[in-house]
């Protein structure tokens, strides 16, 4: 697991930007962290790294936003309002999660893929691991600093 410490929203975005520059089609990035942890700042950076100029904001009430105009399309999903994997499937999000055409970033990934699943989730009795999948945990250290831990699974 890789660990970084961010000292500002700009540094958090810079981490995401480096991920966006390195991203390839089919990437799924799952973000975990409390409210205000910096999940959307990471997504803003990923968009910038992909060359997307659109304003990025959290899709909490619409579930997802799609951004075009960069090197790859970006789908930003927010599962905060969903409470379980079955809610995610009922919302029709599986295509964005299982077979991203570009890069899909999911805030509140634990609502779909609990940490205990070790990168796998059950769907119709079958187990799968999205690949390539980057699982990210963001922890608040204080008002400015964030600990960002990530692990690539199936890359």
Structure write-up:
The chain has 155 residues and is of the alpha/beta class. The chain contains 4 helices and 9 strands; from the N terminus they run βαβαββααβββββ. The chain has helices at 9-22, 39-50, 85-90, 94-98, and strands spanning 2-6, 27-32, 64-67, 74-78, 103-107, 121-123, 126-128, 133-140, 146-153. It has a 7-stranded mixed sheet. Strands 6-7 form a two-stranded antiparallel ribbon. Helix 1 crosses helix 2.
Tell me, briefly, the overall form.
Answer: globular
CATH class, named Alpha Beta
Instruction: Please give the largest β-sheet.
Output: 7 strands, mixed
Please state roughly what percent of the residues sit in beta strands, choosing from under 5%, 5-15%, 15-25%, 25-35%, 35-45% or over 45%. Answer: 25-35%
CATH level 4 superfamily: P-loop containing nucleotide triphosphate hydrolases
Q: Keyphrases for this structure?
A:
155 residues, 4 helices, globular, alpha/beta, single chain, 9 strands, Rossmann fold, two-stranded antiparallel ribbon
Topology:
Layout lengths: L1 E5 L2 H14 L4 E6 L6 H12 L13 E4 L6 E5 L6 H6 L3 H5 L4 E5 L13 E3 L2 E3 L4 E8 L5 E8 L2
Parallel strand pairs: 2-5, 2-8, 4-5
Antiparallel strand pairs: 1-9, 3-4, 6-7, 8-9
Quickly describe the structure.
With 155 residues, the chain is an alpha/beta fold. The chain contains four helices and nine strands. It has helices at residues 9-22, 39-50, 85-90, 94-98; strands at 2-6, 27-32, 64-67, 74-78, 103-107, 121-123, 126-128, 133-140, 146-153.
């Amino acid at each position: 697991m890789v660990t970084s410490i961010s000292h500002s929203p700009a540094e958090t975005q810079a981490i995401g930007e480096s991920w966006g520059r390195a991203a390839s089609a089919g990437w799924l990035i799952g973000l975990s962290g409390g409210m205000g942890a910096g999940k959307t700042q990471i997504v803003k950076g990923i968009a910038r790294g992909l060359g997307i100029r659109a304003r990025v904001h959290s899709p909490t009430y619409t579930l997802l936003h799609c951004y075009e105009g960069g090197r790859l399309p970006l789908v930003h999903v927010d599962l905060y309002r969903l409470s379980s994997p079955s809610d995610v499937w009922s919302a029709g999000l599986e295509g964005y999660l299982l077979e991203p055409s570009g890069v899909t970033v999911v805030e509140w990934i634990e609502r779909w893929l609990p940490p205990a699943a070790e990168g796998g989730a059950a769907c119709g009795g079958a187990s799968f691991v999205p690949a390539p999948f980057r699982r990210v945990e963001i922890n608040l250290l204080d008002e400015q600093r964030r600990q960002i831990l990530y692990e690539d699974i199936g890359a």
